[in-house]
Design goal:
Strands 1, 2, 8, 9, 10, 11 and 21 form a seven-stranded mixed β-sheet that branches. Strands 3, 4, 16, 17, 18 and 20 form a six-stranded mixed β-sheet that branches. The chain has a six-stranded antiparallel β-sheet with strand order 6-13-14-15-12-19. It is an alpha/beta fold and about 550 residues long. It is globular, with a radius of gyration of 22 Å. The protein contains ten helices and 21 strands. Bound molecules: flavin-adenine dinucleotide (FAD). Flavin-adenine dinucleotide binds near residues 85, 172, 203, 248 and 495.
Amino acid sequence: MMAVETTDVVVIGTGFGGAIPGYYLAAGGAGVVMLERGPRLATEDFTHNLQLGTFTRIVDDIRGDGVDVIAGNCVGGSSVIYFAASLRAPSFVFERTGTLGRRLWPASISRRALNPWYRRVERTLPVSQQSWDDVPYPGGVWAAACARAGHTCNPVPVAVDLARCTNCNWMVNGCRFGAKRSMLLNYLPAAEACGTDIRPLHEVQSIGPASTSGYRYAVSYLVLDPDDYRVATGSGTIEAKLVILAAGAMGTPVILQRSAAALGGMPAAVGRYFSPNGDRVTLALLDEGKVTELLGLERAPGVAYEGYAIGKPIGSMTFDYLDPSAAEFTRFSLQQIYFPPITNILPEDGVDAAPVWFGVDKKALTARWRSWLTVLAMTEDANEGVFGAPPPSGNFVRIAPAAGLGQLAFHTAPETQRGWDASDAAMKTVVEKDGLARHLLWKGTPNVQSAHPLASCRMGDDPATSALDDQHELRGHPGLFVTDASSVPTSLCVNPSLTIAALAERASSLLLRRAGEFGLGVRPRVPPPGTTDAMRRRRCLHPA
Ligand SMILES: Cc1cc2nc3c(=O)[nH]c(=O)nc-3n(C[C@H](O)[C@H](O)[C@H](O)COP(=O)(O)OP(=O)(O)OC[C@H]3O[C@@H](n4cnc5c(N)ncnc54)[C@H](O)[C@@H]3O)c2cc1C
């Protein structure tokens, strides 16, 4: 009989939620194996094109019923493809009560309680505060439009080494300049330096009880073919004393649902309460003459660095609609964001009829692409997403590179719609003032589009509506922890990565202190990974 492989800790997934505890536990002295479904790419492997087989290796677009979600599929997870806007969530978010009418976050977590962990991540990544000189042209247009409409607008802090950034605008492909501070440049190499074994193309299927004495859980995986992730070339099981699930908000609940029978049941909140972070993109079609006349901005023809398609995708945002005293479901941020040309199909063409992807009006709209200003609203949603039964293997049914059909259903609740109506109205007021632009909705698909999946295995104090306790431990399953975006209870009104990372930092510190309970002999305190880059840092501008 083959001996079962054992290790102290198995971490599933290598994004923020996996890399951070993976590092701390390894640095504390535990043996750590990290299983990652996607491939491993280095800085020089990232490309600058949209061909199939290049960026499609590392990105997944998962289509559900009423929602499409984009997420990373590689070592480093979504931190490799993300746009690196790094913001602390406003204080009121932690006090939200949602449609349940009672506090969604555990009583032990507030903005103030999370501030030290936010600070630690900001230093470790590190995060840089952009100045207006660092903000690309569309960020300047958005800021000038906000100012003219009587609103403040701030340059966004980003996890980017601004001295290395070339403003190439290919962040979704992975950064080939080593400027974006993904997990590939900090926590993961630090974890490996402490002996962590990172295994790419290992897709975890389920978790069951261990058969070896002294070990708690058996993690089963398939080894995937690097050229076709639908094909398995092997399989295996590792037993561990502690398991950390960090397969992202689209992966973690599916693994747990599939494991329910073997583990003797799952909390009811696993796979429920999904939040797309209230993401809503709309478009301002700018009148270039008015941009000059009203905002005093001009783009000289042929000056590449003043083009829309050039620059960091996220430059500026307004916090003015994050009023803590306003009613829940009416608060949001509005952030300038750039999307690749593939999204040309999504905005409405301005014609009062059913949405179309093609046609004369759409052609006229796309011909003016250089005058598009896209703005992302991040609102308070109602956590209405629910996962159906898991597929036979994997997190979703893969139909092509970078494309899959998921089991997630999202039927927009009136409270969520109220937030989107409010953010649409605010955006329209800003951009249509004195005819500066025409506001268009994103109607090319009926599905909600999100790059910020959250809350599908959330933490909280109420066992009926939260799968995890306030230490990220899965209720009823000691030694099984969830530290990724799925643990965040609800939408944040800002981009979520810094909060996910701060929570993972906090959870890691708790895990180090509790490791003895799980038979691990580790040091209770471990310093964060050091940063070697001399980076330009200013105090970051966050909502209060
Ligand atoms: C295009 C894009 C732009 C974004 N821009 C920003 C931004 O500017 N600011 C911001 O704050 N946020 C941004 N986000 C969101 C942010 O990247 C995510 O919220 C965050 O990275 C999620 O971290 P995570 O650890 O929960 O999950 P992930 O980083 O997604 O990590 C999950 C990992 O688990 C792996 N995995 C999944 N299933 C399995 C399995 N069965 N077995 C083994 N491994 C598995 C995945 O391949 C992945 O590596 C963006 C996201 C996208 C897609």
